[in-house]
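Human: Here is a favour to ask of a fellow structure person. Comparing notes only helps if you start from a blank page. I am asking you to supply a protein in sequence and structure-token form. Write it directly below this note and I will take it from there.

Assistant:
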Amino acid sequence: MKKLFLIGLASVLILSSCNKDDQKMETASLEQQKLDYQARQIDLERQKLAIEKEKISFEKQKDSLNKVTEEKKEVEKKAETNRIARKSASKRSSSSGVVASSAGSSASAGTTTTKKKGWSSAAKGTVIGTVGGAAAGAIISKKNPGLGAVIGGVAGGATGYTIGRANDRKTGRVQK
């Protein structure tokens, strides 16, 4: 009986010691699970930050593309304005020749109509400066001749107008 009691006691001790190891393993596994969870949370936060950085860089690229598109539209509008100005200038020059010839014929008929003066020096200077500046700008700008033509046309037109306006003041066509 003593042997049976000792065997029972030994088995109870062995089993209870095994349970303590299991409890230690359970607590260790819980700690490991917590650490794994925290590591996953950190990875998720890193991924969120990377996504935000990509969004910001995409927005910057989008903004820069929009600016380039707007600049192209402005350049095209200026070029179209210059084309329209050239067309209207050529129409005016052809129509002013008709007006001058009709005025000359009416003057020879004996009526007292005043002859139109024609283009002012400022208008002539503006047209000549615009065309010359646009041509020079297109030739000078190798990479983007359209932009060079627009810039040259604007600069040439302004210069031509200034010179023509000064000539109109000298001749008395306009007062200060």
The two ends are 137 Å apart (CA to CA). The helical segments are 2-108, 121-140, 145-171. Residues 97-110 have pLDDT under 50 and may be disordered. The longest helix spans residues 2-108.
